[in-house]
Write a structure and sequence with these properties.
By secondary structure, the protein is mostly helical. Helix content is 77%, strand content 5%.
Amino acid sequence: MPDFQYIAREISGRQVTGTLAASSQQDALGLLSAQQLFPISVAPAEELKSQWKLSGRRVRARQKAVFYSQLADLLKSGVPLLRSLELLEQQATSPAFAAVLQDVREQVADGTRLHDALRRHQRVFGDLVVSMVRAGEEGGFLEEVLKRTAAFTDHQEDLKGRVLGAMVYPLFLMIFGTGIVVVLLIKFVPKFEPIFERMAERNQLPWATTALLGMSDFAQAYWWLIALALALGAWGLNYAAHTETGRWRLDTIRLRAYGIGRIIGSLAVARFCRVLGTLLRNGVPILQSLGIAKDATGNAVLSKAIADASDNISEGKSLAKPLGASGEFPPEIVEMISVGEEANNLENVLVDIADNLERRTGRELDLAVRLLEPIMLVIMAAVVLFVVVALLLPILQSSTIA
């Protein structure tokens, strides 16, 4: 019997995934029901493998933004969805994206709803886009949602470009400085060891020189161990980021990190406010909007605080109070949300909050990067100075003794 991979929810609402053997997809659905699981998606494992290959291909955010915008324009002009997808597939400049759009078109042609077809390629479109498209389909404003999604994707890409552009020079300094230190320790310092042997035998070497020679010997003998430790550390962080507990801890560290934690938190809150405000403007109920917008933060800690706020709203309480009680949202943001609720103008207030936060955070990020550059230069200068002093001190001591 073929294997079927499924995504389902338990009675408690917790999402589970797994694989089961069944003669057909209908039988697989029956087996899930017998286990008191509510299926979200069930597909043959072989089909998912080929789908994973498609979804694993890299598609640039700009390409996706153009796709959302053009699809919205075509639908608004009265072009049927299937024909619109076919046209966009033919116009796709990236073979990877064309293959993904072909699969989406084929699924829609078979009667699958657009958001379900996009969900098959979550690594390309993401949970947030799938959820927003679903809301647009259910609310009858798909074109508007696609336009908003295109604008949001463009906006996030611009912000990402600014951050990466600002970090290029500090990263270059860090990599260049590390390379200099490695070359000094492995190639340059060992040439001085014969000169210092006699002073070392008489215990006359300064502590700085002794430490430098020790680091050089360790780097030469165990360079492979250092490289292995760095590789394992990178793998461990990547693995932890894909587990619930590990992601929670990493996201907590990001928010609490000195200096950059405030910037990361502000950007995440800005994304949440922008998406929530956009959905509310388009008439999506607040509980459904919160369920979608919490994924926009990209932070498990903030998502949990928003999910808890959703529970409070379902009991008839306000949004601002539980967000403030979580301690993860700045007091001024909570106050503005409270005023927006009282004035029945929450959707506009949220978009204004996002605009203000992004402007303020942009200034803070520029300042942080400007400060980072001289800090990196000072660190590099201090390291090089330590190496030079450690090598010159024994020579000066020997000349003084002589």
